[in-house]
Amino acid sequence: MRNGVAAPVLQNGMVKSGTRNWEQAYSNVKHVVDSASYPPLWHQKSSRFREELQAQNRFTADVRYGSAERNLLDLVLPQDQPRGLIMFVHGGYWLRFDKSYFTHLAQGAVAHGFAVAIPSYTLCPQASIPQITSEIAMAIIQAASMVEGPLHLAGHSAGGHLVARMATTTTPLNRSLQQRLRKIVPISAVTDLRPLLNLEMNKDFRLDLEQARLESPVLQEPLAGTDITTWVGAEELPEFVRQSRALANLWSGFDVRIDQVEEPDRHHMNILDGLEQADHPLTRKLLCL
Question: Which residues does 284 contact at the CB level (< 8 Å), separation at least 6?
Fold first, then answer.
């Protein structure tokens, strides 16, 4: 047992979940009231913001970073020369959404003079989670070739997992990009993939125990000198709060700067709202302000 949660038990190569209702433990859709209303709202906000940016020639769409169909990113530019680059990686359990839902989250960072890149990536089951990790590294490489300066990473849920993976000693990022990293903020992140072996969704993830261990940031060492803040809503499912605390707790034993924030009155869907605001603590923490 670890952090009060039993690790998955394997019997004849299959996961046995015991008496825990793992589906409920990870179902944000069921936990958040009116959860279905959020994605259309995100898409609407993003569409409006893109129109504003395009009118000002501050938006570059569909920059290719790899050969797969969904290997495209959008780049949002500030009014003046960028102070650095923010990469935001969307969530959706590696199964849903694309970059078009999240342009509006660039508003806070661009108000402070940062450029923001938002990639789409190949979804499960067409890609495995390790393949998606590699794609995100490719997206960062491409975006970083377009914008100079410090590199800050943020990701939500599955995207939080993906940006945390960039901060491990097994990161696919090259040394020069590692040296540009200034801040990583996994938001409501899945940091330990082993419980996901118990979920029906694993038919699409296709994780086995070995792969889940290798892809779990909480089970890896962070890059020395990295500055990380784990951010989660106080009203989220207990598993997401636990996962955020676990990363902050275990990585605090290494040569990194790490803290953990549990934002009051926030759940898995509205936890991102702060990134729309220039002076929200989440935006300021991401930008090291």
Answer: none
Give the integer Cα–Cα distance in Å for 60 and 58.
7
Helix (H/G/I), strand (E/B), else coil: 142: helix
Residue 288's nearest CA partner among 154, 164, 147 is 154
pLDDT band for 18, please (50, 70, 90 cuts). low
| pLDDT, tens digit (0-9, with 9 covering 90-100), for 182-199 | 999 999 999 999 999 999
CB 287 within 8 Å of CB 112: yes
What three-state secondary structure class fits 181? strand
Mean pLDDT over residues 1-14, rounded? Answer: 39
d(CA 261, CA 244) in angstroms, rounded, equals: 9
The angle formed by the CA atoms of residues 259, 265 and 267, to the nearest 5 degrees, is 80
Measuring CA to CA, how many Å separate 217 from each of 152, 169, 194, 273?
Answer: 18, 10, 11, 25
Predicted model pTM:
0.91
Q: How would you classify the pairing of strands 115-119 and 72-76?
A: antiparallel
Number of residues in the chain: 289
Domains and CATH numbers, the chain: 9-287 (3.40.50.1820)
Let me know: does 223 contact 169? Beta carbons within 8 Å.
yes
Which pLDDT score is estimated for 227? 98
